[in-house]
Amino acid sequence: MHSLIGTYNCKVDVKGRMMIPAGMKKQLMPILDDGFVLRRSVFQTCLELYPMAEWQLLMQKMNKLNRFKKKNNDFIRRFSAGARIVEVDGNGRLLIPKDLTVFANISKDIVLSPSINIIEIWDKALYEQSIDDAALDFADLAEEVMGQDDDGDVS
Is 4 helix (H, G, I), strand (E, B) or coil? Predict the structure, then answer.
């Protein structure tokens, strides 16, 4: 799958349904019918929406972990905790299960933010706070992650 582009503000109704914005829906059109997996983020108080093909690639990597190591089993259990298969309905809506809504502190206003090949779903206030917090260190982070050494390699 290609990289997703564009951050979108939208709303969640009282039943936990969100309408996929037209711009994002257009990008997802080739895979919309395949379904998605929605799960808790490891590092942030947000949700991650994986297109099914991306989820399967990730599961192939995780399947290579040695299950006879306790830390691997603990990781797999925690990583998959609360994960759900979700589908976009005929009206272009996606239902966010209640427990995941609670985890991400999602109320009414949300932000859909692409993270290359997945979509992060944030409560709008938490997203804005996260962006503000990260802005202070972004220059240093950009240099560390994307800066090139003299030999041209990214390290």
Answer: coil
